[in-house]
Specification:
Elements lengths: L11 H6 L22 H4 L11 H13 L7 E3 L11 H13 L3 E5 L5 H12 L3 E6 L16 H13 L4 E8 L7 H11 L3 E6 L2 E2 L3 H7 L11 E2 L11 E3 L2 H17 L3 E4 L31 H11 L4 H10 L13 H18 L2 H7 L3 E4 L2 E4 L1
Parallel strand pairs: 1-2, 2-3, 3-4, 4-5, 5-9
Antiparallel strand pairs: 6-8, 7-8, 10-11
Helix pairs in contact: 3-4, 4-5, 6-7, 7-9, 10-11
């Protein structure tokens, strides 16, 4: 892989909602075999993973950039495959290199890291260079939908183990499948007791052909009796190849998660849902990068536009770019300081975001918390 290939490609949702687009992909595919896996849309079916050793070039380059005074975006391990498959030697070496180069990382897994991995993660955490995310979608038996993943109890034990050595842990409900969590309050209480500091909520997105499968798995669940909506903001519901639960259902579930998280003292956000009014604290980015103990850079998103609306009562498109300059985010002229591969990748996303600001009807579907009225963006 070339350096530019470690930048996530642009899309309406990624370009408008994701702060961190640098992916430290360490495997070519994933053998965990989750039925709902999103990554199959991008990299094809599950299979035997091969290590991507070029990830070392990425980390070394980010380290060099930092030595030259450039603040970098945290690296996500990983975006399309679990970083702890098999012995995960490539992941161990990548984390060691990140520690040497002092590159901040966000690790996301549903597998159990080995002792050596935990040891280097502890070193990263001791210097504020690591946020650890555990994917957990239920407290029930998960084998039907996640055939090769550890049990929910094993993942709760992992959360406890990692949090006890001082590493900030986030639970990603990724995805929330209607009917799989029996009681949201109990779920949130369990992950809080295990030591999590934040919950990130992301709803199921599937091909229309799979809807009947999930509705049979969870008979009686109200969401399956309603019409699901298009995940592609410019495509009508009836023509959409990818669908998600209806908006009213997503809002109801998000509101309950947000309320229960607040009771337990946990931060809360949604991932690629745009339901910003339920995020708390409001100044916490949706990936939890704020839990890092080092300086990092992020790109602007519609969340920043929403913060402008909250502060002023409304916002115009240009207010987002003014905030970008004021907060020293990765956009505009500031990107000129960065190497070409990095600058070009971020610029493509910036242009996509800029185009969405000119299409309020699309923007409102991506970020339902924002409405457009009489030339201004306001809160829903």
């Amino acid at each position: 892989m070339k350096l530019k290939d470690f930048i996530i490609g642009p899309s309406s949702h990624i370009s408008s909602l994701c702060h961190s687009i640098v992916r430290g992909e360490v495997f070519t595919t994933c053998e965990v075999g989750c039925i709902y896996c999103y990554a199959r849309w991008y990299r094809g079916p599950h299979g035997k993973p091969k290590p991507i050793w070029d990830v070392f070039k990425l980390i070394s380059e980010l380290g060099r950039m930092q030595r030259e005074g450039l603040v970098v975006t945290p690296v996500r391990f990983s975006a399309l495959s679990d970083p702890f498959q098999g012995e995960a030697k490539v992941t161990l070496k990548a984390l060691k290199l990140a520690y040497r180069e002092k590159v901040p990382v966000v690790v996301n897994t549903k597998l159990i890291p080995g002792k050596k991995h935990v040891k280097i993660m502890e070193s990263l955490g001791s210097e504020g260079l690591l946020v650890f995310q555990v994917s957990l979608s239920t407290l029930e038996n998960s084998k039907t939908l996640e055939p090769l993943a550890p049990s929910p109890q094993e993942r709760l034990d992992l959360i406890r183990k990692v949090s006890e050595i001082g590493i900030p842990v986030i639970v990603r409900v990724q995805p929330f499948i209607p009917g799989w969590i029996k009681d949201i309050g109990t779920f949130v209480s369990e992950v809080a007791s295990a030591g999590a500091e934040m919950i990130i909520l992301e709803f199921l997105r599937i091909k229309r052909s799979l809807l009947k499968f999930f509705s049979k798995m969870f008979p009686g669940e109200e969401a399956y009796r309603e019409e699901w909506s298009s995940y592609l903001p410019g495509t009508p519901n009836e023509k959409a190849p990818l669908i998600q639960p209806p908006l009213n259902y997503r809002i109801k579930v998000t509101e309950e998660f947000s309320r229960e998280a607040r009771k337990e003292g946990l931060a809360f956000s949604t991932c690629k849902e745009g339901l910003f009014e339920y995020h708390h604290p409001l100044d916490m980015d949706c990936c939890g990068m704020e839990l890092l103990g080092v300086d990092y850079a992020r790109r602007p998103t519609l969340w920043d536009l929403y913060l402008e609306i909250v502060e002023k009562g409304y916002a115009k498109p240009e207010d987002l770019w003014k905030r970008c300059e004021r907060e020293k985010l990765l956009c505009g002229d500031r990107l000129k300081l960065y190497p070409r591969w990095f600058k070009r990748g971020f610029k493509v996303h910036e242009k996509r975001l800029e185009s969405l600001l000119k299409k309020p009807h699309i923007l409102e579907r991506i970020a339902p918390s924002i409405k457009y009225k009489e030339g201004k963006f306001i809160r829903r």
